[in-house]
Amino acid sequence: MKRFKFLSNNTVGYLFLAPWFLGFFGLMFIPVIASLYFSFTQYDMITPPQWIGLDNFKEMFLHDGRFLKSLKVTFTYVFIGVPLELTFALLLAIVLNKGIKSLGLYRAIYYVPSLFGGSVAIAILWRQVFGHEGIVNQVLGVFGVEGISWIGTPEYAIYTLILLKAWQFGAPMIIFLAGLKQIPDELHEAASIDGAGRFTKFFRITLPLLTPIIFFNVIMQIINSFQAFTPAYIVSEGTGGPVDSTLFYTLYLYIQGFTNFNMGYASAMAWFLLVIIIFLTALFFISSRKWVYYEN
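RESULT FIELD:
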């Protein structure tokens, strides 16, 4: 009787939670479990899947050169783009923390790129900006420098997308700004009385007290960067070119799953990406004991 009374008392709550449960199981949990099964099969989304064991993973690591290329491109994008993005975000947060006039307006302006940076429209604009007849080459032409197609040159194509990543610094900037406002002014005042300069106060007070915020931003931006898809798809027109120089991991996963109809292989790639993200996240959590400082 107590069990039924508990259910009756919480019926309204469960009814309100029902849409979330339907979305979670229908759109997340069941598809995730299904993709784990498909990763061990040969599945083209038309015929029934055939169990092949670890063959998809063996193909990935031993025979698929484009898979290894996509890993290299993605790691380049993540480990150059994320530090640049967070550096710009922190510098601007420090500037905006000086109590300048119209602070809300500046925060909104700098936050806009984070809202639209991952959109199709911005990716198309970026392709035009760095194209052969784009704005960048027009500016270079003023100084007598003959430009190239930055998007179409394998050596530079990935760096145009890294610049796009760095330009989307608005979200981490807002978080950094919130962290800076939590640092007591008394600490800086005491350091100034002791004769500490700006750089000393930044590296001895501000930066150590910001390490929890830095840690959070690093984790979130690394996860988001590994999942980046739209810029590479639009800029390379869905091919990852030129010469696979912008072949992001997610783009190659999409090509395998929805262009080549090799959904089993794409599922195996998706699970390996999950392993990479979990490994890097765990690595940062372990290392945080030595460089992240909390108040306690």
